Amino acid sequence: MEKQEMGESKSMAVSQLQNDSRLHQSALNKEKGEIINVYMGIDIGSVSLKILLLDENEEIIERLWLRNQGSPIESSQEGLKKLRKNLDDKGILDKIRIKGVGTTGSARYLIKSVVGGDIAKTEIIAHAVAASHYFPEVRTILEIGGQDSKIIILRNGIVADFAMNSVCAAGTGSFLDHQATRLGIPIEQFGDYALRAKESVMIAGRCGVFAESDMIHKAQMGYNKESIIQGLCDALVRNYLNNVGKGKEIESPILFQGGVAFNQGLIKAFEEELKTKIHVPKDGLNIMMGAYGAALLVKEEAERTFKITREWNTKFRGFDVLNLDFETKAFQCQGCPNRCEVISVYMHNNNDNDENKGPKKELVARWGDRCGKWAVY
Amino acid sequence: MVKRISFPSMGWSRIAFRALFEKLPGVEVVSPPIVTREIVKIGAKVSPEFVCLPFKVTLGEFINMIENHDVHTFIMSIDCGPCRLGFYAPIQDKILKDLGYDAEVLPIQQDDLLNFKWAKTLLQLSNVTNPIMKYVDVIHSTRIALIKMSYIADITKLEGLIRCREIKLGDTTRTVDLLMNKLDNEWDVYNLHNFDKVVKREFSKIPIKRNIQPLRIIVTGENHIVMEPFINMDVVKKFGEEGVEVHLVNTLYDWILHKLHINLKRKKLEKLAKPYIPLDIGGEAMWVIGHYIEAQSHGFDGFIHLYPFTCMPENTARGILEGQSPDPFYLPVQFYSLDEHTGYEGMRTRLESFIDLMKANRENNPKFMNNYQEPPEIKAIFDDKTQEDGISRFINHIFTPLANNIGIILKNLFSSEESKPNTREN
User: Fold this and answer.
1) CB contact (8 A) between residue A336 and residue B241
2) Nearest-CA distance from A183 to chain B in Å?
3) pTM of the model
4) Is B370 near chain A, with CB under 8 Å?
5) Would you call B360 and A158 a contact, using CB atoms and an 8 Å cutoff?
6) What are the chain A neighbours of B348 within 8 Å (beta carbons)?
7) In chain A, which residues have their Cβ closer than 8 Å to the Cβ of B322?
8) What is the 3-state secondary structure (H, E, C) of chain B?
9) What CATH class does B211-374 carry?
């Protein structure tokens, strides 16, 4: 039924995304001995790392989701290690040639310099590009991730307007995670609890702190968990629409992306508030949209560059990046009273040892200063 | 007794403020250092939580000056205008006294400059006893301050226009620093009147890319926030380095002219904004709307509105801009609500996305195609080589040929001396 609603416009790409039929095809290619050119999209957010491989026909070959561990550098190395293992298990590791790497998310520049990315684009653009490929008719994108929430207005496939939470993080994934822990239920079941609720409790949604104290108060009054969670979902939707979506023309079709889109209770609350259907990318693709967009963007970039200069070489360091050690150093610049903290990222190549000085050090990135005199990207 | 005084810096405006007080007898001016993280931190600690950011920043500057520069008298503007700015001086004075500092904040009335209440503060500071001679210094200082203000406005305007065109990154910033330093130390009225030639000469030295059509944006909002680069995370520079032509419309000079009731530009903007906001509600709300309408009709690509997080007038302006979009207000707009935070990451995400959005508009939206007009200032600076001022004429026509000739003569002399022994040997 849902398929009928979305109609034919949902494009053929979608159905192909839904069942990973591409994997079988790549296996076929393997038999033929062909090399598949792929583009990698890496989305590194505050909570998790997403990697997605896209072939030249814009079909997904491999995808990976990983909770952030330690620094973004460590988790990106961990991610690449896991990706290599997955590809090896499928037996297509040596059949794949990575033609470009696009990074997005809040640590995009760091990861770009660590793995050797070709482009670093903001998550807003990446999400918009992915959404308009996945669902060409989309006019509004709601995106709620781990630490930030955004709204993107698309008109004719072009970003017409966007907004991002700038002062308050209420309603984002981390906040919900925290509240779920407080109520003693696993975050995965958060949505189910909300759906079971018979009535909703009024909870103040203006600010994360108010919401939390209000919620505790309601729990002490004896409301059951279900209705509190439902109330929380309603409050967060109100907060989102007032804060991020203020003054924006929210027109359907609406696509809901990001990790929080797993939460059925929130989807229901959005549908009731906006009085229209909310679409969510299938197969858990809602969390991969940033990486998907980054891969699409780097593919576009590669093709455009190739068209003009007849040349395109990726800066990807290859899976060898796992043998490299990265070290970050911070120092305080004494150039002016601002005393900026400047962060430098050094790369040690363990394979390339200098006898006297130990491993060779190479500066790959440096930033953090206001004036830009130290900046290396 | 010589009184050491200081004032909030407000970006480059500190040069104009310094000029206003420097030549008063009995006053020693200590120019405020640039705003830093530490200063904002001190100010935020002792301020009421929900007060506007400029209050916190200026208070932080005062405390920094008391502790590190031994200044105990500060000048702060007051207003009987509609927003909180009017009460900054008395409240800051009270907070400083409550903290136990022996300091005073002298108000300077900027409500209506034509009623000359502001001159009272200057007269009070001056230690000249003759009641008529007192006025001479005040008039002189005001004149110099006004001239300097106008040049600060010119330089900051050109900075935004030229940075997107520079070939070597950082040339414009260096030139601006140089010019501002020169302006700060120039006290001769004749030289000041001819300072525009220096500005032109220095800027024309920057190698630029001509014939490009960069994206054009207007940056405006609350005066202090727009003019203080530390607080607004230097958006003018950030956009410029990304290749966007920035038209910075808020300047101190503009504001002073407005308060003298001779700013025709602002009168025009008020007329434009009238249907949406019929009266001045404080801050820059009315003119922000006016600038928006004007920018839209002049074919700009974007609009940046900067304001302190809790500023009432600017929040109202934001509401109006958002409420009228996308019809009739279709120009893309970004709002930056700024507070004590110094993290740049979220801002960078929005800035880069906004640039991508504007680029896509240029390519796909007929409303934004082919309406780029090169600002006349660029042509005036970089194309017009015929007009030379005295110094460059001297250098080009007298000094350089002379130096060349002397060089040739010296070279001949030395080479002949060197060659002589050789010939003898031969």
Assistant:
1) no
2) 31
3) 0.83
4) no
5) yes
6) 122
7) 246-248
8) CCEEEECCCCCCHHHHHHHHHHCCCCEEECCCCCCCHHHHHHHHHHCCCCCCHHHHHHHHHHHHHHHHHCCCEEEEEECCCCCHHHHHHHHHHHHHHHCCCCCEEEEEECCCHHHCCHHHHHHHHCCCCCCCHHHHHHHHHHHHHHHHHHHHHHHHHHHHHHHCCECCCCHHHHHHHHHHHHHHCCCCHHHHHCHHHHHHHHHHCCCECCCCCCEEEEEEECHHHHHCCCCCCCHHHHHHHCCEEEEECCCHHHHHHHHCCCCHHHHHHHHHHCCCCCCCCCCCHHHHHHHHHHHHHCCCCEEEEEEECCCHHHHHHHHHHHHCCCCCCCCCEEEEEECCCCCCHHHHHHHHHHHHHHHHHHHHCCCCCCCCCCCHHHHHHHCCCCCCCHHHHHHHHHHHHHHHHHHHHHHHHHHHHHHHHHHHHC
9) alpha beta
ipTM of the complex: 0.80
Mutation to test the B interface, candidates A103, A162, A243, most B Cβ within 10 Å: A162
In this complex, the residue of B234, B336, B350 whose CB is nearest that of residue A370 is B234
Distance from B121 to chain A by nearest Cα, in Å? 31
Give CA–CA dist B426/B422, Å, rounded. 6
Which pLDDT value is given to residue B391? 77
Predicted confidence band of residue B424 (pLDDT cuts 50, 70, 90): very low
Q: What is the dihedral of CA B106, B110, B113, B116, to 10 degrees?
A: -20
Spatial distance between the Cα atoms of B38 and A342, rounded to a whole number of angstroms = 16
pLDDT given at position A5: 40
Structural domain boundaries enclosing A56: 2-128+290-317
Query: What does the pLDDT read at residue B346?
Result: 78
Same domain, A334 and A305: no
Is domain B3-144 given the CATH code 1.20.1250 in the classification? no
Q: Quick one: pLDDT band at residue B375, thresholds 50, 70, 90? A: confident
What are the sequence ranges of the domains in chain B?
Answer: 3-144, 211-374, 388-426
A124 touches B at CB < 8 Å:
yes
Chain B: residue whose CA lies nearest to A338: B36
Q: What pLDDT was estimated at residue A373?
A: 78
Instruction: Number of A to B CB contacts under 8 A, please give it.
Output: 75
Residues of A in contact with B359 (CB under 8 A): none
Task: Tell me, yes or no, whether A152 and A272 share the same domain.
Answer: yes
Give the residue ranges of chain A where pLDDT is below 50.
Answer: 1-22
* A18 shares its domain with A124: yes
Percentage with pLDDT > 70 across chain B? 95
A246/B361 touch (CB, cutoff 8 Å), yes or no? no
